[in-house]
Amino acid sequence: MSRSPLRRNMIDRSRRLARPVLRLLHGGHEHFCPLCESGLRRFVPFGLNPRDAARCPVCGALERHRMAWSFLRQRTDLFQRPGLKLLHFAPEPILESLLRRIPRLDYLTADLSDPRAMARIDITDIPFPEASFDAIFCSHVLEHVPDDRLAMQELRRVLKPGGWIALQVPISGETTFEDPGVTDPAERVRLFGQDDHVRVYGRDIAGRLESAGFTVTEVRPGDLFEETERRRVGIPEDELLHECRTVIP
User: Distances from the Cα of 151 to the Cαs of 47, 138, 176, in angstroms?
Assistant: First the structure.
């Protein structure tokens, strides 16, 4: 189950204050977290069905956060373009804190219900004109959205020509499974993995994104790391990120 925004804030603040102690307790050379830049003996289990080596014991970053941060640093112009306008949906505290430190980044966080976000925005009805943003980061959001195709169209509408989106969703198998008739929380957990999920995506999500007008690249850990380094930063080889771009006319 997802934690409340207040509880997430408290946990994040406590973890930041405790980082020097946590680095001493968990320090080592076998692994490395690219977000808090801690050397670690190991990553620790996390999740409803605990995944081995999932969470950084110092900053709390999960596999998808380590993948996303590595992608943003290696494959985007986020750190090189002064004034770049970035829209960040459902901001994860660990990533938000790092993005806020980027000099001259025009940064906006958005969420429909989280009071921490800078703007209250429905991803299926984004209140900005066409071509408003150079870049969008959207991780583990669309699996919560009943009309994900409309959300994809809205993301495409507000993205500038030549812009990019870093998009992540949980993926299982090849084909997306959804059933709008499933509303019982326990049944959603059984079918979709979480009580507020409305589908389980397959790798065919790329086709949905292309139908919304994007060119899509499936980014795998091997595109960012040599095998030894992938293991060191604790990213499973099946972790995926979709890089969505608009075509410059």
Answer: 27, 11, 16
| CB of 133 closer than 8 Å to CB of 124 | no
Look at residue 25 in the predicted model and tell me its pLDDT.
74
Pair type for strands 119-120 and 215-219: unpaired
Is residue 198 predicted with pLDDT exceeding 60? yes
- Structure token pair of residue 150: 């409309």
Place of tokens 């499933």: 182
Long-range contacts of 88-92 (CB under 8 A, 24+ apart): 88/136, 88/137, 88/138, 89/121, 89/123, 89/136, 89/137, 89/138, 89/139, 89/141, 90/114, 90/117, 90/138, 90/139, 90/140, 90/141, 91/116, 91/117, 92/65, 92/139
* Cα 237 from Cα 21, distance rounded (Å): 31
What percent of the chain has pLDDT above 90?
86
